Q: What sequence folds into this?
């Protein structure tokens, strides 16, 4: 089982994502200018500030050569996980519905939160149960999920902010969504920062384990 982690200019959470993936399988970096996915079985698009967040978060990264291959991989049913900036990129690339807007308080937030699993039927939540609350950190300035009313039928919620409250003003407390097939998932919290009890929580490891179990 090999997981690929995409690296753009400005990506800053790729190392932690590789370390998280390495706990469940082999992991390697996928460079943004390289169209080859090196025969990976699953793809993680990590957090950071791709292309400096110029124009709009995730807006430039969607045009990178690697994203054409990622889109084709997803259309063929391959598991793709977008974390924070990766979530923003997947929304910009129309691989997930909705958009990520600036936080209501217009400032960067960083804190540990409870994240409720709403849909345990995706490729990235199969090791969870509906209603599970995972302790995972968030850190972002543009994490307010918005789905226009005309796209209400496309709402496919996977995670919601739980008892700790909604930190950014996301519609319906949404913290993460999936595509219709359930193989592409995006979320604002950072599961790659919650894979070891020594750092406060290992709950995030369940997402990476889910992808492996689904493929096996």
A:
């Amino acid at each position: 089982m090999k997981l690929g982690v995409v690296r753009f200019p400005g990506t800053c959470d790729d190392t932690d994502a590789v370390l998280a993936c390495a706990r469940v399988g082999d992991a390697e970096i996928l460079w943004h200018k390289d169209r080859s996915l090196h025969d990976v079985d699953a793809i993680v698009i990590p957090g950071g500030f791709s292309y400096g967040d110029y124009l709009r978060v995730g807006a430039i990264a969607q045009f990178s050569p690697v994203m054409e291959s990622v889109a084709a991989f997803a259309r063929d049913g391959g598991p793709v996980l977008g974390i924070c900036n990766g979530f923003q990129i997947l929304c910009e690339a129309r691989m997930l519905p909705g958009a990520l807007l600036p936080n209501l308080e217009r400032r960067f937030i960083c804190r540990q939160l409870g994240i409720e699993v709403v849909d345990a039927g995706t490729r990235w939540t199969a090791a969870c149960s509906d209603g599970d609350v995972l302790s995972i950190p968030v850190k972002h300035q543009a994490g307010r999920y918005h789905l226009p009313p005309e796209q209400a039928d496309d709402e496919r919620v996977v995670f919601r902010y739980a008892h700790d409250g909604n930190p950014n003003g996301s519609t319906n407390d949404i913290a993460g969504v999936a595509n219709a097939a359930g193989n592409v998932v995006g979320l604002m919290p950072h599961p790659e920062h919650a894979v070891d009890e020594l750092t406060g929580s290992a709950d995030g490891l369940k997402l990476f384990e889910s992808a492996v179990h689904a493929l096996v």
